[in-house]
Specification:
The protein is of the alpha/beta class. It is built from four helices and seven strands; from the N terminus they run βββαβαβαββα. The protein has one domain: 3-Layer(aba) Sandwich (Glutaredoxin). β4, α2 and β5 form a beta-alpha-beta unit.
Length: about 140
């Protein structure tokens, strides 16, 4: 019997127990029956952000961004491409710092875009500035 991981559904936020050896088998949510991984960045609000970083037992990569930020918009396609390469081993999410100003302050986001990698609810790495998809993947895998 393999170890199970808790994975938060990107659609209904239910916590699912998924056998570690079945992450690549396109698991679906036990509550809403939708796929647990979409191979694209998940846009979160403050409440969902906390749930995803604290309840997922896989690392969570966060792009702290803002709609008015030119480098953020430039990096968005690369971040989406990185999501296709990183999931299901790593949950890839985006947090709009304009909509979640309290969280941006709590995590001391001073420049955007800023990538932060969380494991078990704790930040383990941070990188400010835009990167291409290969750079995002390499940086994330080096710290995951």
């Amino acid at each position: 019997m393999s170890d199970s991981l808790h994975i938060v559904c990107p659609h209904c936020d239910a916590v699912n127990r998924v056998p570690a050896d079945k992450l690549n088998a396109q698991p679906t949510c036990g509550k809403c029956q939708k796929p647990l991984f979409a191979a694209q960045p998940l846009e979160l609000d403050s409440a969902r952000f906390i749930r995803h970083i604290t309840r997922n037992q896989i690392p969570v990569l966060v792009d702290f961004w803002a709609p008015w930020c030119g480098p953020c918009r430039t990096m968005a396609p690369s971040y989406a491409q990185a999501a296709q390469l990183l999931e299901p081993a790593i949950r890839v999410v985006k947090l709009d710092t304009e909509q979640a100003q309290e969280l941006a302050a709590q995590y001391a986001i001073r420049s955007i875009p800023t990538l932060a990698l969380f494991k078990n609810g704790r930040e383990v790495a941070r990188q400010a500035g835009a990167m291409d998809a290969a750079g995002i993947v390499a940086w994330t895998q080096a710290h995951a």
